[in-house]
């Protein structure tokens, strides 16, 4: 067996562990899920699980790093762009797509806020939010326009977190939230 095949298999196992752990964390909560339960759901021994991850925190940190890489890239990109309406719309679009791709992780984070504060990823998320707010808000505009810009960001969160039980396709809900967020940004810029 070639080393690339071995590497791919290890990657597949790592991905399976992440997927199953995140599923259990969302179902039961982070604190109530044990490594033993993750191993049982995967139908592997705890030793096999330990080969890839030593702790639950190792698992959730790795899931976070993998699923949120596009957000890191988005922030870097946006900081290099002029603060135009087009840039802000693109920030919202890309952020919305990243949230959609990592929907399970974002739901986990919402439902396990106390745990998030205790994990290193909680601080990372808080820093992102402040960076995204700064990228979106109209710095010299009236306070109401600044609130519209910040609200655009949280509209995307509301679409994912709080409208998940609305009848219909989750992708349609994400796109509807994106439309409203884009309207808020546009309204703030028209007034400026």
What does this structure look like?
The protein is mainly α and 192 residues long. It has 2 domains: 1-54, Orthogonal Bundle (Arc Repressor Mutant, subunit A), CATH 1.10.10; 63-191. The protein is built from 10 helices and no strands. The longest helix is centred in the first third of the chain and has 26 residues, at 3-28.
Describe the secondary structure blueprint for this structure.
Elements: H1 3-28, H2 35-42, H3 46-52, H4 56-79, H5 85-101, H6 103-111, H7 113-118, H8 120-136, H9 143-161, H10 170-191
List its traits:
single chain, 192 residues, mainly alpha, Arc Repressor Mutant, subunit A, 2 domains, 10 helices, 81% helix, elongated
Helix content: over 70%
User: What is the molecular shape?
Assistant: elongated
Q: Give a short account of the largest sheet.
A: none
The SSE order reads HHHHHHHHHH
> With helices defined by DSSP (H or I, 4 residues minimum), what is the helix count?
10
Q: Uncertain spans, ≥5 residues at pLDDT below 50?
A: 1-10
Q: How large a portion of the residues is in β-strands, by DSSP E?
A: under 5%
Give the domain tally.
2
Number of strand elements: 0
Mean pLDDT: 87
CA radius of gyration: 19 Å
Structural class: mainly alpha
N- and C-termini, Cα separation: 63 Å
